[in-house]
């Protein structure tokens, strides 16, 4: 009889990968705890590290869309008018 392949949820994979990322246990201890092969733990850990920036990319674009404040005007410099060309300072 053939045995069906097990499919793991993304929460399970994340939990195993985060446990490996902490570094408090060895890969063999983690794989024994989760009852999976050590190679799977290391692959999920690499996947987590490779895709970690994607978590923050989605957040930054939504937060910047919410916080669209106009930039404050630049402070005026002494001796310069609002025109493009400087004027001579008054003595």
Can you describe this structure?
By secondary structure, the protein is an all-alpha fold. The chain has a domain at 10-56. The chain has helices at 10-22, 27-34, 38-50, 52-66. 7% of the residues are buried. The mean pLDDT is 80.
What is the fold's blueprint, element by element?
Layout: H1 10-22, H2 27-34, H3 38-50, H4 52-66
Short account of what is shown:
By secondary structure, the protein is an all-alpha fold. The protein contains four helices and no strands.
The global form is rod-shaped
Biggest sheet character: none
- Give the class from helix and strand content and strand pairing: mainly alpha
State the order of secondary-structure elements, H for helix, E for strand: HHHH
> How confident overall, as mean pLDDT?
80
Whole-angstrom Rg: 28 Å
Helix content: 40-55%
Strand content: under 5%
Q: Tell me the number of helical segments per DSSP (H or I, 4 or more residues long).
A: 4
State the separation between the terminal residues, measured CA to CA: 99 Å
């Amino acid at each position: 009889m053939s045995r069906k392949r097990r499919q793991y949820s993304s929460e399970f994979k994340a939990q195993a990968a985060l446990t490996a990322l902490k570094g408090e246990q060895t890969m063999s201890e983690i794989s024994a705890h989760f009852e999976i092969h050590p190679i799977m733990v290391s692959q999920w850990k690499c996947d987590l590290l490779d895709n970690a920036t994607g978590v923050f990319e989605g957040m930054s674009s939504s937060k910047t869309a919410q916080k669209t404040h106009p930039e404050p005007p630049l402070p005026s410099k002494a001796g310069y008018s609002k025109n493009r060309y400087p004027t001579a300072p008054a003595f």
